[in-house]
Automatic annotation (TrEMBL):
One of its GO terms (molecular function) is hydroxymethylglutaryl-CoA synthase activity. This is Hydroxymethylglutaryl-CoA synthase. Keywords: Acyltransferase, Isoprene biosynthesis, Transferase. Belongs to the thiolase-like superfamily. HMG-CoA synthase family. It comes from Halapricum salinum. The keyword Cytoplasm does not apply. GO terms for biological process: acetyl-CoA metabolic process; farnesyl diphosphate biosynthetic process, mevalonate pathway. Residues 195-408 form the Hydroxymethylglutaryl-coenzyme A synthase C-terminal domain. Residues 3-175 form the Hydroxymethylglutaryl-coenzyme A synthase N-terminal domain. InterPro entries: HMG-CoA_Synthase-like, HMG_CoA_synt_C_dom, HMG_CoA_synth_N, Thiolase-like. Pfam families: HMG_CoA_synt_C (PF08540), HMG_CoA_synt_N (PF01154).
Length: 444
């Protein structure tokens, strides 16, 4: 089978920034370390008044198409993954195509468009759909555009408020890709859960603590399923990008994942001299005693040099960008992948033909784990991104401005304010059509 995977990716942040240590913690009268150390987050990206899931998606897609020299007829499929859609019928991908048709000759009339929903895992599912479409030979030489876009906002005062974010990641899925090849083995962990949901409402109902447990349970199941197909070893992977609602969540998931994968390997033997071997269920009379022993072992594990070195090499780099932008829901795991590759490029780490283990998650709930092989073109692709410029140029909002912009994006409020930034060379939201549709225009 021809190699299929991610040929290029683009990152588009909301143009505002809420500083968690300076602004959020100060207003809440909290220790800033709760956010910067506990959750591992420094700032959240927010959309300005003229930005939304469509503008961020279309702006990411345009930069990607320009950079790769693509015309609309080169794209046979546009899938948008989001959990912030404002229409139960017309998919966001049609709005995005409409935007792009304003600036390119030609159209996307022969492209299959859709919208994928399964909380934060929908972006990964859309990539899977696109890979399968190409592998099945249905693409007629064309590539697929997959865009994960969200305004991840919580109700004011919700504990999740500190983990908000807004942005889009656009990815071109194609044969012989320049960034990564998606390997066929997949592990799934999936169950009917009510930890985080939006039953016909804009802001989520969240059981925060439960959602963290569910994340870990489903991720463990997915890893077990993956390992049944491909036995793994902690040193098999150069980077392990996780869905990152906040880096502290990944810190917990990484420890459990490492312990699981290290079991019955030379790593467990090497660690045994320092912290003993991992507890085995057959050595315990009851489940609770076994769980306590596992927790004790995991705590000791995370203190070892071997684990710290692995964590600094494979996990920490994937959190660098996420810590500055917050949770982008469907885009989050793709920000982690890009962040890890960006770190490697900036630090002269050679990733040609190295493996990534990509660990996606969506509430409700499902985890999926697959491997990707980094392609020799990865460095040029990552060098073409302008992530640092976007992050530095964000307008740093005060608490009062945050309150206003949260209202602007609240569907139940009709707040109208002047934007904090001036659009230039981008798609903007510019009002409502006669059937209540949102309208967009390109500003030179
Ligand atoms: N210095 C250092 N650390 C501190 C601190 C300080 N001064 N104060 C607190 N902390 C630590 C806490 O110990 C805690 O760390 P541990 O969990 O390792 O103990 C961390 O900071 C957070 O503190 P709290 O648990 O007290 O925070 P909270 O209860 O206010 O909120 C939350 C945490 C429940 C995750 C909340 O942010 C939330 O509801 N988030 C939304 C749901 C979410 O993101 N869930 C993640 C899994 S679900 C998912 O991944 C899907 C998705 O995208 C939403």
């Amino acid at each position: 089978m021809t190699d299929v995977g991610i040929d290029a990716a683009e990152f588009r942040s909301g143009k505002l920034k809420l500083d968690l240590a300076e602004t959020f913690a100060d207003e809440k009268d909290d220790d800033p370390a709760k956010y910067t150390k506990g959750l591992g987050l420094h700032a959240s990206s927010f959309p300005d008044a003229y930005e939304d899931i469509v503008t961020m998606a279309a702006n990411a897609a345009k930069r990607l198409m320009d950079r790769k020299g693509l015309a609309p007829e080169d794209i046979g499929r546009i899938d948008v993954a989001t959990e912030s859609a404002f229409d139960h019928s017309k998919p966001v991908s049609t709005y995005v195509a409409g935007c792009l048709e304003q600036v390119y000759d030609g159209d996307f009339h022969h492209a299959n468009k859709g919208e994928r929903k399964f909380a934060c895992i929908a972006g990964t599912q859309s990539i899977d759909d696109a890979v399968n479409w190409i592998a099945a030979g249905k693409n007629r030489g064309r590539a697929a555009l997959v865009i994960a876009t969200d305004t991840a906002l919580y109700e004011r005062g919700d504990p999740g408020e500190a983990t908000q974010g807004a942005g889009a990641v656009a990815m071109l899925i194609d044969e012989d890709p320049d960034l990564t090849v998606i390997e066929p083995e997949q592990g799934f962990g999936s169950a009917d859960e009510t930890d985080f949901l939006k039953p016909n409402q804009q802001f989520p109902s969240v059981d925060g603590k439960r959602s963290m447990q569910v994340y870990l349970m489903r991720m463990r199941e997915a890893l077990e399923d993956f390992e049944m197909q491909t036995p793994t070893h902690p040193d098999d992977f150069a980077l392990v990008p996780f869905h990152t609602p906040f880096p502290g969540m990944v810190r917990k998931a990484a420890a459990l994942g490492y312990r699981h994968v290290a079991r019955d390997t030379d790593v467990e033997e090497e660690l045994a001299e320092e912290i003993g071997r991992q507890p085995r269920p057959e050595a315990f009379d009851d489940e609770e005693a076994y769980r306590d022993a596992l927790k004790e072992y995991t705590d000791k594990l995370t203190e070892t040099d071997l684990y710290s070195e692995w964590y600094s090499r494979t996990i920490e780099p994937t959190l660098e960008v996420s810590a500055q932008v917050g949770n982008w829901y469907t885009g989050s795991v793709h920000v982690a992948r890009i962040g890890g590759l960006k770190h490697a490029r900036e630090n002269g780490i050679d990733l040609d033909n190295e493996q990534l283990l990509v660990c996606s998650y969506g509430s409700g709930a499902q985890a999926e784990i697959h491997a990707e092989t980094v392609q020799p073109g990865w460095e040029d692709e990552i060098a073409a991104l302008n992530i640092d410029d976007q992050l530095v140029e964000r307008y740093d909002i005060s608490w009062e401005q945050y309150e206003q912009i949260h209202d602007v994006h609240n569907h139940d409020e009709s707040t109208d304010i002047d934007a904090y930034t001036t659009p230039e060379g981008e798609f903007v939201f510019d009002g409502w059509g006669r059937m209540g549709e949102r309208k967009y225009t390109y500003v030179e």
